[in-house]
């Protein structure tokens, strides 16, 4: 039989993930996944992680041809600590474990956002199409912080969208000035809105196509939740009904994925949105490429410096210095470029030891899994 992923598609499942999953499974496992069994006997099912709590993982999936259901997944030790191995938005294959479902593998993600939190790498979200970088048209406005978010998105190959909120708080002239500054960023999707006056919301609705996944980042109070509520038309709610019980249905957590109705004509279409209230300080790591893309103009000049290891200080033939002197590049952009790269380099050097250790652990658990498969 052909698998019916129709409900999953409305929450972001695509052929891309099917291909990844097929490549990760053995023939027998694939056959079992496509089995004709009743949902109650189905050995495997695909779920999307919607929340990661200390003691449990919430996910949403489709059993048989039933509607979407929400359930808790069992998390085996090889996926712990979850902050390293699982992210909200990840697709997982789970196997039946009596009346529960246990995570078996993570479908190779299309994109993953990560940061350093209390000196530890932490996955923020996975499989996003857009990162909505939200700032407000008042004292929160800070280009340097936006560049940091931009690097985060570009590093993860997620399309960044800059949203300037609370446009009602400033004059036309001030708004023009804010927008002029934003246009200097290496991001061509920029929108000014006011949820108070309802302006600009229609443009944002064009992003809300069925199956799309969006995360919102920005300082506390810039209006992320207000924006989401305005777009959803209602309070955010978790799609699907819970299979087992009603505990923790709306527990607040830093990492939670909600579904709002899509704005396109497809009935029952959903858009996955992740609000990130916990992300006040964003510490990037492993983000060299994202930083270079964020400052593409400076980076491309740096490629032309006479010395490949040019520090852009007093070296002869430095194209960056030259551009700084003739005003082609902004000194504050240059400072931020240098600062972010230095931070990234510093963390890389400091963490080299522990990262290598983790990589070793991961390849070890992979080896054990392969051995188990062979024994089977
Ligand atoms: N003037 C004006 N105020 C707004 C607008 N949007 C939101 N606000 C106000 O800004 C405040 C913060 O809004 P929230 O939506 O809670 O901000 P947030 O980004 O979700 O904040 P955290 O949840 O702390 O991350 C509230 O008092 C809102 O009423 C707007 O378009 N114009
Ligand atoms: Zn140089």
What does this protein structure show overall?
Helices cover 35% and strands 23% of the residues. It folds into three domains: 6-110, Beta Barrel (OB fold (Dihydrolipoamide Acetyltransferase, E2P)); 112-275, 3-Layer(aba) Sandwich (Rossmann fold); 288-359, Ribonucleotide Reductase Protein R1, domain 1 (Orthogonal Bundle). It is of the alpha/beta class and 376 residues long. Helix 9 (288-294) packs antiparallel against helix 12 (331-375). Residues 235-253 and 370-376 have low confidence and may be disordered. Strands 10-9-8-11-14-13 form a six-stranded mixed beta sheet, sandwiched between helices. A five-stranded mixed beta barrel has the order 1-2-3-5-4. Strands 6-7 form a two-stranded antiparallel sheet.
**The CATH homologous superfamily of the largest domain:** P-loop containing nucleotide triphosphate hydrolases
What proportion of the residues form beta strands (DSSP E)?
15-25%
Shape estimate? globular
Number of domains: 3
Percentage of residues assigned to helices: 25-40%
What is the CATH domain class of the largest domain?
Answer: Alpha Beta
**Main β-sheet: number of strands, strand sense, barrel status?**
6 strands, mixed
Specify Rg, calculated over alpha carbons: 23 Å
* CATH topology tier name of the largest domain: Rossmann fold
- The tally of beta strands, per DSSP, is 14
Order of helices and strands: HHHEEEHEEEEEHEHEHEHEEEHHHH
Query: CA-to-CA gap between the ends?
Result: 25 Å
Count of DSSP helices?
A: 12
Structural class by secondary-structure content: alpha/beta
The strand line-up of the biggest sheet is 10-9-8-11-14-13
Q: What is the arithmetic mean of pLDDT?
A: 86
